[in-house]
Design goal:
By secondary structure, the chain is α/β, with parallel strands linked by helices. The protein folds into two domains: about 300 residues, Rossmann fold, CATH 3.40.50; about 120 residues, Rossmann fold (3-Layer(aba) Sandwich), CATH 3.40.50.1100. The chain is about 45% helix and about 15% strand. A seven-stranded mixed beta sheet has the order 1-12-11-10-13-5-4, with helices on both faces. The protein has a four-stranded parallel beta sheet with strand order 8-7-6-9. The chain has a two-stranded antiparallel sheet with strand order 2-3. Helix 4 packs parallel to helix 6 and helix 15 packs across helix 18. The radius of gyration is 21 Å and the shape is globular. It binds pyridoxal-5'-phosphate (PLP). Pyridoxal-5'-phosphate binds next to helix 11.
C-alpha cells in the first residue's frame, strides 16, 4: 500500500527528500509528571529498568570471570561521563546554550558499542531463564557457576541467532559464544569486513545476505523459527533489548549526581542519541524519563539518508524508501530503512524530537572530537554532536524550546551527546575516517 504523505508539512517533506538536515519537534510530546508507557500491550515502568540492572549485577561475577577486560570493573560493563568544553568550543556552541557533556559508550568493553547494553542483556536473560529452568542457579546464587561444565553443556545445546548490520551481531555473538551457546549472526552486504572477521575469530557463524539490514533480519528470523533449539534476538521487536538499554539511565543518574550536574525544571537535560531501529535510544530515553520526568528531553539523531524513526513518527509503517531515500550512509550502525514499532510506541509521548545529519558532518565531528577531547569514535557515534546546534539554531528547534518554556533555562541546560561506538574499529580504518573528517572540517 503506497503511503500518503500529503498531510505532512510540505517543507519538512521536501527537506527530508532532498536529504537536507532537519530538526523535527515532536508535537505529541507530553510534559506531564508521569506518563505511562505501554508497548505491545504491556505496561513498563521503573521497576523494569531496575530489574534489568539487577540482572547485570547478578551476572557480574560470571562476566568478570569470562572477560579479562572486566576484572577491573568487577564484571560491570559501563562507560564514563565526560565534560567536553573543548568540543563545545570546536562546535561553536555558546555557553548560553548550556554545557556539553559526553556519555562515552564508544568505549564500552566486550562489545565496543552501545549494543553491549541491550544485546548482552538479552543473551543474559535467555541464559538465566535456561539456568533457572534446569535448576543450575537460583536468583541469589553466585552465577559464576555458569562458567562450569554443566551449564556449558546445557547452553551448548542451544543456538543464539541475530540479524545485524554489525554492532548488534558483535555484542550478541561475542557474549553468546563466551557463555557456550552456538552463535549465528546474519549480516547484510554492507556490514564491515572487520566485524565479520572479529566474530569468526570468536567461533561465531557469520551468514552473509545480499540484501539490506531488514532482509538479513528476516532471513535470520525464518531460519531460527524452524529450529526449536534456536533463540532469535529480534532487534525490531525486542522488549528485553530495550530494557537492557534502559538500565544505562540508572548509572547515568549516579554519574550526573556525582558530577554535581543538576537536572530540574530550570536545568533541563537534553540527550542526543544516534538512532538506527530506535531500540537503543528508546530504551535509554524511557529509562531517563522514569528518573527525570519531563525535565529530560531526548533527541534522536539519524543520517539524512536513513531517517527511519522520523519517517515512522510522521507516517507509521512507512520506510525511508517510501520517501524516496537510499538508506546509504557510512554510519553503518544507523543504516536502517524501517524503525522498530515497539520503540516508536514507547517514544510517541516522550521524545522531544528527531534531527538528521549529513555523512560529511559525521566525519567532521569524528575528527573534531579526536582533536578536542582525544576520543576515538566511529561515524555512527558522531551523530549526536550536530544535535545541540540543530536544537538551538533552527526555527523548528527554537519553536520546541519556546513551546516547552525552556528559553530562559538554556544557559543552565546540560547538552549530553551519547557517543555510541568505536572501541574495536581497526586502526587503519579509523585513520581513514579521521583523515576524511580532517579534510571536511578544514
Ligand atoms: C545500533 C547502534 C545505534 C542505534 O541503536 P538502535 O537500537 O539501532 O537504534 C547507534 N550507534 C551505534 C554505533 C550502533 O551500533
Amino acid at each position: 500500500m503506497p503511503t500518503d504523505f500529503s498531510a505532512l508539512p510540505q517543507q519538512l517533506l521536501a527537506d527530508l527528500q532532498a536529504a537536507r538536515p532537519v530538526f523535527w519537534g515532536n508535537p505529541d510530546r507530553s510534559d506531564a509528571a508521569t506518563v505511562s508507557t505501554v508497548v505491545d500491550g504491556r505496561g513498563i515502568s521503573l521497576a523494569d529498568v531496575k530489574a534489568a540492572r539487577a540482572r547485570f549485577d547478578r551476572f557480574a561475577p560470571l562476566l568478570a570471570r569470562l572477560f579479562p577486560e572486566l576484572q577491573g570493573s568487577a564484571g560491570r560493563i559501563e562507560s564514563d561521563l565526560l565534560p567536553a568544553p573543548a568540543m563545545q568550543q570546536a562546535l561553536g556552541l555558546p555557553s548560553s546554550a548550556g554545557a556539553l557533556w559526553i556519555k562515552a559508550d564508544h568505549s564500552l568493553p566486550v562489545a565496543g558499542s552501545i549494543k553491549a547494553r541491550g544485546g548482552i542483556h538479552e543473551v543474559l536473560e535467555f541464559a538465566e531463564s535456561l539456568a533457572l529452568e534446569y535448576g543450575l542457579v537460583t536468583h541469589d546464587a553466585d552465577y559464576a557457576v555458569l562458567a562450569e561444565a554443566p551449564a556449558r553443556a546445557l547452553f551448548g545445546r542451544y543456538q543464539v541467532a541475530v540479524g545485524s548490520t554489525g554492532n548488534l551481531g558483535l555484542s550478541i555473538g561475542v557474549m553468546a559464544s563466551a557463555l557456550g551457546f552456538r552463535a549465528a549472526v546474519h549480516m547484510s552486504a554492507d556490514a564491515k569486513a572487520w566485524k565479520k572477521a572479529r566474530l569468526r575469530a570468536r567461533g561465531v557463524a557469520v551468514v552473509e545476505h545480499t540484501g539490506d539490514y531488514a532482509a538479513a533480519v528476516a532471513a535470520g528470523r525464518r531460519e531460527a523459527d524452524a529450529d526449536p533449539y534456536s533463540y532469535f534476538v529480534d532487534d525490531e521487536r525486542s522488549l528485553s533489548l530495550m530494557l537492557g538499554y534502559s538500565a544505562a539511565a540508572l548509572h547515568l543518574h549516579d554519574q550526573l549526581a556525582q558530577a554535581d550536574v543538576r537536572v530540574d525544571a530550570t536545568h533541563p537535560l537534553f540527550v542526543y542519541l544516534p538512532c538506527g531501529v530506535g531500540g537503543a535510544p528508546a530504551g535509554i530515553a524511557f529509562g531517563l524519563r522514569q528518573l527525570y520526568g519531563p525535565n529530560v528531553h531526548p533527541v534522536f539523531v539519524e543520517p539524512t539518508q536513513s531517517p527511519c524513526f522520523l519517517v515512522e513518527m510522521l507516517a507509521p509503517g512507512a520506510s525511508v524508501y517510501d520517501v524516496g531515500l537510499t538508506n546509504r550512509t557510512e554510519a553503518d550502525g544507523l543504516a536502517v530503512p524501517q524503525a522498530s514499532e515497539l520503540a516508536a510506541q514507547a517514544m510517541r509521548p516522550l521524545l522531544a524530537g528527531v534531527c538528521t545529519v549529513a555523512d560529511d558532518t559525521l566525519f567532521a565531528d569524528l575528527h573534531r572530537v579526536r582533536e578536542a577531547e582525544g576520543l576515538r569514535i566511529e561515524p555512527s557515534a558522531a551523530a549526536g554532536f550536530s544535535g545541540p546546534g540543530m536544537l538551538t539554531g533552527t526555527e523548528a528547534g527554537r519553536a520546541y524550546l519556546t513551546q516547552h518554556h525552556l528559553d530562559g533555562a538554556m544557559a543552565h541546560a546540560t547538552q549530553l551527546v551519547w557517543t555510541t561506538g568505536g572501541l574495536f574499529v581497526p586502526p587503519e580504518e579509523y585513520a581513514r575516517f579521521a583523515e576524511h573528517g580532517a579534510a571536511l572540517a578544514a
